[in-house]
Amino acid sequence: MLSDMNSEVRSGSRTAKFGQATSRRVFKALGVFGSVQIVNVLCSVVRTKCIALWLGTAGIGIFGLYNNAIEVINQLVQLNIRQSGVREIVGAPQARFSVLVTVVRRLSGLLGLIGAFLVLLLAPVLSRVTFDDTDHTVPFVALSIVVFLSSVISGEQAVLQASERFRRLASASMWGGVAATVISIMLIWFWGYDGIVPSIISFSVCIFIAYFIVRGRVKGVARLQSGEMRESSLPILRLGMFMTAAMFITQLFQYLFLVWLGRRAGDDMVGVYQAGYTIINQYVGLIFAAIAIEYYPRIAAVEKSNNRLSLFVRHEMSMLMWGLLAAVVLFINIVPLIVRVLYSDAFLASVDYITIASVGTIPKAVSFVMAYVILARGDGVIYLLTESLSSVLYLVLCVAGFRNGSLAGLGCAYVMWYVLYTIIVFAVYRCRYHMGGVGRPLSLSLSVSMIVAAQATVCYQGYYLAATIVSCVVVPVALTMFYFLFLKRKTLKE
């Protein structure tokens, strides 16, 4: 299929006849993984509600402390093997596919064992740092199995994603999550506080079993030749270390801002901001997460060809713009309802932040599409530099935004953050990789941003009836354009 794409790109008419097939593939992936993300979010909401109902705020706090401590270890030891592993597998010749599948699986298992050993070794320290006592040492020892299983799961996710077993990947994620939620809720119901640690362990076990069931469909090699494991692991580990460092810096600067915000405005303001930030990044971000599952392996497979890469980037960016125009305009109109459903009336103060920050999802989408080119190229140093600069901008803009406009100022800071990040990523895209051809999608993104900004302004002023009218006009038009441009039309003129 890729050779057909290449010949079409080189043809004089520059007509990409793969347009409809690619659009349907993206739309199908969005539907499948979007549904999975929604199910997983619902499971998370149900699990959290049950814990809050049966164990109160203390139970939520203990559950969060255990999870956060283990998540830090996971991120450090896994070295982002899912993303770096996907790139290596999809970019390899067919003859090396089975070898790299085995390498990724063994590497994920080895990293998981290292992580589990670290938790066993540091259990007293983790207990002291997390709970200010050593009474939780044994629970942390038990949670070492979670670190191992999480690493193995990441390896299997990389293999399934790279081999385009999207339905199996979605099935394992969804059914594993549902089963894990049911079992963990039962443990909390029967054992109360004593069921928190077993529920966390059972959650990982259920997800692992789900992936173990589907892993047999993707075969590796029985034995690796001498030195093959070390040679094949180095590129995966190299890119993974840069990605892990970038993630650590991002989380560090977010943590620094939360500390500053808490000292300046109190814990209640931190809670309100965190609720709004979670809605914008996790719930709205479901669209990006679902698309990335299919988009990243596709561009990683053609990363050596600027023509095909730029064609995919243009196509993806245009699709996202029309899709987000409908989604974000509608989302802005129902932000108060979303906050009430997911949280409570006490968090309605975050509505102003969410409404304004929603405008930033458009430049975020533009930068999202181009930034994945950096990962597809395996350019770890540039990725680390761009993400580090982005983190500095985040901290500076958020501090300035809150000082000048409280939560509304933080919403403006979010928009400016992604506008500047888009400029940075575009500079890398254009100057380092010598790629272009995104003029039309960028013009479209500017128009979409103006419409979304207008909707946000109307809602911010409290004119929800007018906003509803705008939604009733814009959403059908955007969806109709999306259908005829990307699903109905058989060729895409570039």
Report on the structure:
- It is built from 18 helices and 2 strands.
- It has 494 residues and is mainly alpha-helical.
- It starts with a helix and ends with a strand.
First-last Cα distance: 19 Å
Unreliably modeled segments: 1-18, 490-494
User: What share of residues is helical?
Assistant: over 70%
**Total of DSSP H or I helical runs spanning 4+ residues:** 18
Instruction: State the strand order across the main sheet.
Output: 1-2
Largest β sheet strand count, sense and barrel closure: 2 strands, antiparallel
Find the count of extended strands (DSSP E, 2+ residues).
Answer: 2
Rg (CA only): 23 Å
* Gross morphology: globular
Order of helices and strands: HEHHHHHHHHHHHHHHHHHE
Structural class: mainly alpha
Rounded mean pLDDT score: 84
β-strand percent reads under 5%
What's the gist of this structure?
This protein is mainly alpha-helical and 494 residues long. The chain contains 18 helices and 2 strands.
Defining traits:
18 helices; mainly alpha; two-stranded antiparallel ribbon; 494 residues; single chain; disordered C terminus; 1% strand; disordered N terminus
